[in-house]
């Protein structure tokens, strides 16, 4: 599991040379708020002709606005499909490490300014705290991108909206399946109420298909009885550390291994724009996650000493796609495994 995760997140796979190289690797990037990110158009990839059903566009609802949902909605909208993207929490930040391989930058056409840091030095640190440099296989143009999920996810959703998708801030509750041929799915959701800051009015929309990208514990998957699947829990603290300590992490990411930090994953310290993210995860020992997090912090010793925790995040994250495919009734399918799944290939 650890090596599996490692390969997927630190991106040690074949990649094509980087085309755009705007910042030098030592440049300290400025912190970009999600809304300030620079968006540019994709050269896409979706069908040129719009699928029509009796004189109208096909309608698809994508439930979940993480990377899988944002990317799916953009592709659908670009293909001329009337697309609704439903996300319960638009400022949601997943505590996944946010390390992305170079291939993802190309495949998702990510602009470089949403990448906080382009790290070339990786250290794997043993249970007895022996550090081994593992970034040496990177070629001169290669790096591991460090993103903040609130920035990446918002960017992908906004790009879907620019392509024509309607973004709905709401909690998907349930769906009514079509009872006769050509009848629509009726999808029920609680719209977010901006005034009270809570879920508000019950709403429904009719669509021809539903894509489940609602992550771990997917309600879409349950609705279509797509089967159970495993999920991981991730815990992460964003820590603002003193400038002299931040200098060490400017171009370094650390992976801590050992049963103290996680029996089946690894602990990490990944540099973000002006702070570091310290986290860990587990699939097999979820109740112990806080203990693993404390151990990860302790393992960093004085490297983050004097730091201030500015944000704490914990979230279940889909680990594998459901084992059973769903024969056309909406598809949590492999995209439910999300970006990670994409990175594994
Ligand atoms: C410990 C750990 C560390 C990881 N580290 C990395 C890493 O460094 N790099 C990396 O690339 N990947 C990492 N991953 C994997 C990565 O987090 C996942 O692959 C990714 O989040 C999956 O994306 P997704 O869009 O499928 O799901 P999610 O990101 O979970 O998105 C699902 C979305 O659906 C929304 N939603 C859920 N239910 C509803 C509902 N009923 N109505 C409306 N909206 C709903 C949620 O709010 C959420 O925004 C890590 C995973 C773990 C467990």
TrEMBL record:
SUPFAM superfamilies: FAD/NAD(P)-binding domain
Stretches assigned to the FAD-binding domain: 59-90
Molecular function (Gene Ontology), one example: geranylgeranyl diphosphate reductase activity
InterPro entries, sorted: BchP_ChlP_pln/prok, FAD-bd, FAD/NAD-bd_sf, Geranylgeranyl_reductase
Highest taxon, organism lineage: Eukaryota
Pathway(s) where this gene product acts: Porphyrin-containing compound metabolism; chlorophyll biosynthesis; Cofactor biosynthesis; tocopherol biosynthesis
Coiled-coil annotated spans: none
Keywords assigned by UniProt, alphabetized: Chlorophyll biosynthesis, NADP, Oxidoreductase, Photosynthesis
Catalytic activity: phytyl diphosphate + 3 NADP(+) = geranylgeranyl diphosphate + 3 NADPH + 3 H(+)
Compositional bias (Basic and acidic residues): 315-327
Function: Catalyzes the reduction of geranylgeranyl diphosphate to phytyl diphosphate, providing phytol for both tocopherol and chlorophyll synthesis.
Matches recorded under NCBIfam families: BchP-ChlP
Protein name: Geranylgeranyl diphosphate reductase, chloroplastic
Organism: Lactuca saligna (Willowleaf lettuce)
